[in-house]
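[job 4417] fold queue: 2 targets
>>> target A
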Amino acid sequence: MPVVNRIADFTGDMTAWRRHLHTIPELGLECHETAAFVAERLRDFGVDEIHEGIARTGIVAIIEGQGDGPTIGLRADMDALPIAEETGAEHASTRPGKMHACGHDGHTTMLLGAARYLAETRNFAGRVALLFQPAEETGGGGEVMVQEGVMERFGIGEVYAIHNAPGKDFGQFFTKPGPIMAAADEFHVRITGKGGHGARPHDCIDPVVAAVSIVQAFQTVVSRNHRAADSLVISVTQIHTGTTDNVIPETAYINGTVRTFDKEVQAMVVRRMEEIVAGQAASFGVTAELEFVYGYPPTVNDAAKAEFAGRVAAEVAGEEGVDGAVEPVMGAEDFSYMLEARPGAYLMLGQGDGPGVHHPKYDFNDEIAPIGASFFARLVERAQPVAGA
């Protein structure tokens, strides 16, 4: 696999960076120690500018190339998850209840590896903006960075990111034009009836029966209101009501997630949920309210940028090592906000067999870090070649 030779030279350093980051997981926007480590490495590399404190603990670093040209953005997420680690690794988390269970330590390392190479060689025109982002898992750090104006402030014209993919073939890249990950919304239904003794249901207005009927009716949105060939997920994940066997409770609560790729489908789901909640409430004589919370939008690759990124990935992994028409997944990613602001592409990089992301035994495969770093480096050199080169 043709990893860039110079990047291969510091594979050991990249492994050490990643494993150090793995020991110090931080959550949300509070990636202070992680950001400090990243900034220290960037200073060692001699990048031209380091802008800290963006989205609280995010960093934008600038590397100047040769001569005038556009600015390309490369993004890595830095935050971890509130999960107790079970890997047993020597580099396991030192923070109880927190771990890098999604590989953001590896994503940060890949971008640091590319930064070191690009700062040394500068074999590109224009500039590179390195976007080290907090709060991908919760808090929408990508949205915050966009809202704080990073695209305009640093003149970023296009933007790219990679996510590791456990269970996929080692070193293989996956991408596609158009939607590659879904929007992630949540819903809450709060039902109020009249509680009383379980032996006298005729004196009560039972919220439990209403809750069960609402949950069942929600499933018909997918099976009866939506075109079967399109992608839609509605999952009820919580039902809370009651405290004992012989009391009909006063209230019930329903919670879940909706995953869509299309705004029209999303709007249809909201409309049907509102109708179902109102209709079932009237049917059972309870009161009920729906709260629909819009989350991350779908991650939508620009068609031309995805095709270009696939060609660059083939330089690193070979033609057979790139799937440019991968099936979209129903997970969500807040890189979506950056792709709403600028054209670009999101790719996945297989890391071989092992526990999946968000699993307490997951660990990033350090052997793919030079591959991801090489992709980032070649992407910059191909997108912004030096005049006459």
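>>> target B
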Amino acid sequence: MEDPTRAAVAALSDDLRRRMYDFIRRSDGPVTRDEAAESVGISRKLAAFHLDKLVDVGLLSAGYGRPGGPRQVGRAPKVYRPTGLDVQISIPPREHGLLADILLDGLRAQRPQESGLDAALRVARARGHELGAAEHDRTRPGRLGPERALTCAGQMLESHGFEPVRVTPTLVRLRNCPFHPLAAKDPDLVCAINHAFLAGFLDGLGATGLCATLAPRPGACCVELGTNPTGA
């Protein structure tokens, strides 16, 4: 879970904050402190404290304006709006959005005489290659040997929820399948997409001494990264 998500979840663990946030999300326009306070039955001062906490973690934005009604004189009140921050919690981590993007892009980009599976695998490899090339450009690692390449790959693997484990200096196994439980419904499809994605990433990274190998293990990702195609 990324830090902004942790902060948002922590903020919403407070019942008053969560109820005010729900009220503001369901409102047709910006909400004042008085309106937010009234929605949960607390003082304006206490509401301001909770609202500012929600602003701090990125769930609300604050400004000044008149939500509506008769025109008033004097300074416009502070108002709050939802930011649209998407907060999702999954333990262990899941990446269903990435899988959905690959499948949708594969469907849109399917070529004549190309099967849906082949299109999805082509897109998955291209997506992985793009991430690998971006990481290579960011870190500028020079020529990559297998051990250093696996180290460079670690950040991407962690960020997508693979939970990499360095078994040997040149072998990384992935403890978590970020596409579970969809992988269990159709392992041939989902594992093939995952394999293509990770193979494309290594290629884009310039890790010529490594390969992604299908090596299914119960309760873990179906792919491992190493120098030996057998994963031994």
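[job 4417] complete. Note on B: The chain has two domains: 3-82, 96-226.
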